[in-house]
Amino acid sequence: MTEIWDQLALQIKGWGREFGFDQIGIADIDLNHTKDHYLEWIKQGFHGEMHYMVKHGSRRYKPEELVPHTIRIITARLNYFPHSQNSETILQDSQKAFISRYALGRDYHKVMRAKLKKLSEKIQKEAHKALDHAFQFRLFTDSAPVMEVELAEKSGLGWRGKHTLLINKEHGSWFFLGEIYINLPLPIDKKVENHCGTCTSCMDVCPTKAIIGPYKLDARKCISYLTIEHKSSIPMEYRKQIGNRVYGCDDCQLYCPWNKFGQISKEDDFKVRHGLDDIELVECFLWTEAEFLENMEGSAILRIGYDQWLRNVAIGLGNAKTSEIIVNALKSKYQEASALVKEHITWALAQHNFHIN
């Protein structure tokens, strides 16, 4: 029977490639080693306003509680880096809006979920046909209390970098992860060696020093967290460091030596939409809500909403080189803006020595 499961595991990896994944791994469900670190991270309050990190309790590190009868987890890796304007060029131009490279194309949740569904259905069909085995599954992509990086690491897709993201020796870290929880006793893959060594590039370059130690992130300081997950006023002490980053931050990946091996994604859905890789802050700020909804349709950016978008772009404009165009753009939105956006417009104008009466 072991040979049958071995053969099925090989087939699953082949099907994964057919459906567009760059790598498939298989892990067991033992995550007990993550419990103490995770609970201490929560206790320190490093999760900020991400209250969902707490409410699911032990289901995060006990997969069988999240999906009963789970004994294995199939992990999937999908490269996302698009053919886009050079990131450093955009970051150095204070008139431009920098958007994290993962969000320049179609919402990855939709893309990954569709591929995972195809793979799950293929396994279900073949397992039933060849083994007469009832295949139970549930798939996830950044959508539930799942220890994505730990599971990917256990299944040999890479190792956890000091910035807490997964790194693959041949592909860097520009990829998404997804999982299928299953009840089939498939052979598991071996964990790979950590190759970060003494390098601290990601820690050194972080604009807000959110990586407070190797493998330890204080999300409350992270620009990705502040511009996406944080829904209220952005703390004053981080506004200058945010620069022109209006959605996410890639600095820790941009300066990771392993990302010299990163490859352009073959996935059409991750191609740049609406010129978001090279767009002016003023243009972003002057969108009406209808234009924002239209331009961000099908994008991961849509979920932060119009107000949060304006809040982020206002900070970018406050950090830009002073010009009449920027000051006038900020002033034009003030009267109609929400209290949250008004506060950030006021701050931005003050950076250009203009004060609302």
The count of domains is 2
- The overall average pLDDT, rounded, is 95
Structural class, from secondary structure content?
A: alpha+beta
Estimate the helix proportion, in percent.
40-55%
Number of E strands: 11
Description of the molecule:
With 357 residues, this protein is an alpha+beta fold. It has two domains: 2-182, no CATH class; 279-357, Alpha Horseshoe (Leucine-rich Repeat Variant), CATH 1.25.10. It is built from 16 helices and eleven strands. It has a four-stranded antiparallel beta sheet, with helices on both faces. The protein has a three-stranded mixed beta sheet with strand order 10-3-11. The chain has a two-stranded antiparallel sheet with strand order 5-6. α1 runs antiparallel to α6 (108-131), α14 (305-319) runs parallel beside α16 and α15 runs antiparallel to α16. The longest helix is centred in the middle third of the chain and has 24 residues, at 108-131.
Which keywords apply here?
357 residues, alpha+beta, Leucine-rich Repeat Variant, 2 domains, four-stranded antiparallel β-sheet, three-stranded mixed β-sheet, 16 helices, 12% strand, elongated, epoxyqueuosine reductase activity, tRNA processing
List the helices and strands and how they pair.
Elements lengths: L1 H17 L4 E5 L7 H9 L8 H4 L7 H4 L5 E8 L7 H5 L4 E4 L8 H24 L5 E4 L7 H7 L4 E2 L5 E2 L7 E8 L18 H5 L5 E3 L2 E2 L5 H7 L6 H7 L2 E3 L3 H4 L24 E2 H6 L2 H7 L9 H15 L4 H11 L4 H13 L6
Parallel strand pairs: 3-10
Antiparallel strand pairs: 1-2, 2-7, 3-11, 4-7, 5-6, 8-9
Helix pairs in contact: 1-6, 14-16, 15-16
Enzyme class: oxidoreductase
EC number: 1.17.99.6
Pfam families: Fer4_16, QueG_DUF1730
